[in-house]
Design goal:
Number of domains: 2
Distance between the termini: 27 Å
Helix content: 25-40%
Largest sheet: 6 strands, parallel
Number of strands: 13
CATH class of the largest domain: Alpha Beta
Length: 392
Amino acid sequence: MQPLTGVTVVALEQAVAAPYATRQLADLGARVIKVERPGGGDFARDYDRTVKGMSAYFVWVNRGKESVVLDLRRDADRALLDAVLARADVFVQNLRPGACERLGLGAEALRARHPRLITCAITGYGATGPYRDKKAYDLLVQCETGLVSITGGPEAPARAGISIADIAGGMYAYSGILSALYERTRTGRGSALSVSLLDALGEWMGHPYYTQAYGGAPVRRSGARHPSISPYGAYRCGDGARVFLSVQNDREWVALCERVLRRPELARDPRFAENPLRHAHDEELTRVLEECFAGHTADGLIALLDGVGIASARLRTVGEFADHPQLAARDRWQDFGSPVGPLRGLLPPVEVRGRQAPMRPVPGLGEHTEAIRAEFGGPGRAPQRGDGPNGS
């Protein structure tokens, strides 16, 4: 048994944000029925061919689901979807605003038929306002929230290296659905949720917003350095390698000066006595640190920092992350199935003691269509009262 065993999720989804949300639900044991269009399915299937011929994006966000291909313009396929929804607990969609309403699948219409159903719509910019119908993809939302303007080095802005707007939207949808499932246990009724990528990533922009709104100056791009804490970034050692370290408070700063730098007087230096001063004199502080670190190798410095309790890290490549000794020691990698054979992926981040996460396969396009037709009574079967938790 998993936490969401017995919960059925119907997902009319594509790309990343909604599939990422529903994959989290699948990882907790929910049954996720992914509805795909004829002639290619979720267009994320064709983003690339890097995973043994499959898309890396699709593999990442669609593990553990069932794929059913339906043409919702056909009466038989639409009747089948209605039969599935009659027995579902959650309906997730990230079509353009208004598209589900035109199909008769809007939140108001669905919940009128199935009061216990939880609906979740993920949009780019929200269901109202001048940007309502504007196409929204991850990089574009990063731009609209100001994230790109503060990412990168002083010479040029940069995209965040992952689909962070989609991930933010997916995670808020996921947590919202969990809260709605809990609320339903007390009220007996479902909820109509909505999440926009602009709002989700905008929430994550809280620190730069408050810094600029009340600090009186734009947030500057600082590359791999922290924009407001110092020392916090990469520093060159004697062997030419760089070590990342972070000092979070004055107590740690004193420990760094006394036990690592062996220069206790720096703790009282008026340029460095507290974080705002250290940050204002970051270039000078960097020169001081790198002069002191010149006598250490990267390995030796990290060992010294660890011994003192100063946080540090190595700059790893993605390939080095895949071989990370901490993940290996905790056995965090596991194989799962796919149409192209076994693949390896990380176990879900939330560990539930005594339970093994269900690393179920990535579905082939339409792999479960016939099984779904058989289970839900074929294309002509109307939803029946009492068929499931949302039977009306």
